[in-house]
Amino acid sequence: MSEFHEVPVFENLSRDQIAEMTSWLTRQRYKPGETLIVEGGAPDGFHILLEGRVEVLQTIMESGRRVAVLEPPAVVGEIGLITHHPRSATVMAIEETLSGFLARETYERKIAEDNIVALRIGYNLGRIGCDRYSQAVREMREFVEGEMRKVKYAIARAYWPG
Questions:
Q1: What local confidence, expressed as pLDDT, does residue 153 receive?
Q2: Nearest by Cα to 37 from 84, 75, 76
Q3: Which intervals hold domain Cyclic nucleotide-binding (predicted)?
Q4: What is the 3-state secondary structure (H, E, C) of the chain?
Q5: Domain 2-159 carries which CATH code?
Q6: Most buried one in 1, 3, 112, 161, CB count within 10 A?
Q7: Of 117, 119, 35, which is closest to residue 82 (Cα–Cα)?
């Protein structure tokens, strides 16, 4: 249970609160090649990786591309819990994997009850989402600036060769 403190979604939760949260989980086992989450699927909850490793695949230009390999302690599928948007990636077991699955219905019921653990998880998810958004904006800006430099260089060479 102490490894959950390393997972950003569970930051600022006490040992008792983490114990409460783990009581909401169902354990799910996956063999290598089995899918935990399907890109484009409905967000039905999130997985806390307890054992094993998974790969995260995204469809880019009609082919699957590995964007990450994750191992415990890690969480997958958490943003869909808040946004309700379709899954943005496929998550597949690379080796025997055990996860604790928190169903969206359970989480939303706890939120409706004003459960402090669920509210803190929601706060952390919001913070994580904002951090990811800020990082994506920085990366996009760097990409666009790099491409603009290439265009300026190409134009300069076309008009002022040599």
A1: 86
A2: 76
A3: 9-109
A4: CHHHHHCHHHCCCCHHHHHHHHCCCEEEEECCCCEEECCCCCCCEEEEEEECCEEEEEEECCEEEEEEEECCCEEECCHHHHHCCCCCCEEEECCCEEEEEEEHHHHHHHHHCCCHHHHHHHHHHHHHHHHHHHHHHHHHHHHHHHHHHHHHHHHHHHHCCC
A5: 2.60.120.10
A6: 3
A7: 119
Residue 46 forms beta bridges with which residues?
Answer: 102
Which residue has better confidence, 80 or 101?
Answer: 101
Phi-psi domain of 28 (left: phi exceeds 0; alpha: psi -120 through 50; beta: other): beta
CA-CA distance, 81 to 102, in Å (whole number)? 9
For the entire predicted model, the pTM comes to 0.78
Encode pLDDT of 115-137 as tens digits: 999 999 999 888 888 887 888 88
Residue 158 in tokens: 């076309």
* Token code pair at residue 38: 């399907």
Q: How confident is residue 2, by pLDDT bands cut at 50, 70 and 90?
A: low
pLDDT at 53 over 60: yes
